[in-house]
Structure to design on (333 residues):
């Protein structure tokens, strides 16, 4: 049986102290506290580290450790801020947090949680409850709700996946929270293509089958790749209906949320989403590559319609890089 005390929360921060502190505050109001909270600072270039450490002391006694010298587990750590030397992306930061949790805590499961979220007080208990209902290792996601409109669902666990195009569609987005109990858990889980990395619970047993998150994606769709690899290994994707997590969405990267026009997102975000989508299809659904290429012609045409002709070359550059395997941190970051 998995209990909240068995879970280490992994929070990734990059120049987002205000969001991270708000998330920490929510975690310390959970009905049952997690076994540990690990904040990973992804080489922020502002004053995130001292601000987070100062605020965190309201609720705990956090330990500040450096990537080069994380220390030893003399006794299980409960609150740790890991300071990285370089920002190598979302997956790299979360993987560093998982490794640290393995070495410094007694936890056997990990709750990857976006720093721009604020979980409801029963969010973690509900994730553990849904996990325990399964017959073996699984990935479990929460009900994400828009932080700016706390009665509107962002997604139920994650997304439906159009595999041939590498596209994800949030499940039950825009439905009201009051209708949550009328949504079928069974039917939702049947079409879950990925668990969103904004709130993802996994046991260390899963990692024995999948390995860690792929770091070459840098940012975006690594949670989709991880979910696909889990499903291929026979690990189910589950949704904890009652695990409510309020999500600001795009607070760290500046990407437009679903409440705004998506084409306003930064150039580098546009590139990464397109590049990683091509890589996802190449790796998992290679027979669909011709259809994928045709779809990028449509993407380029949309950029023209939006009066963004400067982005058309970027579309095809991203496609080529994804198919050719030129991954990692993009030059525009």
């Amino acid at each position: 049986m998995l209990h909240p005390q068995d879970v280490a929360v992994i929070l990734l921060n990059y120049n987002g102290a205000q969001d991270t502190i708000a998330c920490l505050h929510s975690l310390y109001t959970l009905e049952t506290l997690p076994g540990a909270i690990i904040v990973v600072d992804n080489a922020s270039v502002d004053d995130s580290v001292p601000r987070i450490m100062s605020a965190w002391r309201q609720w705990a006694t956090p330990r500040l450790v450096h990537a080069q010298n994380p220390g030893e587990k003399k006794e299980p750590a409960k609150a740790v801020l890991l300071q990285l030397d370089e920002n190598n992306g979302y997956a790299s930061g979360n993987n560093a947090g998982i490794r640290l949790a393995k070495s410094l805590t007694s936890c056997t499961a990990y709750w990857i949680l976006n720093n721009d979220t604020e979980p409801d007080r029963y969010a973690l208990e509900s994730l553990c409850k849904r996990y325990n209902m399964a017959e073996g290792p699984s990935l479990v996601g929460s009900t994400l709700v828009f932080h700016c409109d706390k009665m509107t669902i962002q997604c139920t666990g994650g997304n439906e996946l159009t595999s041939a195009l590498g596209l994800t569609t949030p499940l039950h987005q825009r439905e009201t929270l009051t209708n949550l109990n009328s949504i079928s858990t069974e039917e939702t889980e049947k079409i879950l293509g990925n668990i969103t990395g904004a709130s993802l619970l996994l046991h260390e047993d899963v990692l024995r089958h999948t390995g860690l998150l792929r770091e070459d994606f840098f940012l975006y769709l690594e949670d989709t790749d991880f979910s696909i690899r889990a499903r291929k290994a026979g690990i189910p994707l589950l949704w904890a209906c009652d695990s409510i997590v309020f999500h600001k969405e795009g607070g760290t990267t500046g990407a437009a949320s679903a409440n705004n026009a998506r084409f306003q997102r930064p150039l580098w975000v546009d590139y990464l989403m397109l590049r990683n989508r091509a890589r996802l299809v190449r790796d998992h659904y290679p027979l669909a590559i011709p259809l994928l290429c045709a779809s990028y012609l449509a993407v380029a045409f949309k950029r023209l319609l939006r009066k963004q002709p400067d982005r058309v070359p970027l579309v095809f550059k991203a496609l080529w890089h994804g198919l050719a395997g030129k991954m990692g941190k993009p030059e525009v970051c």
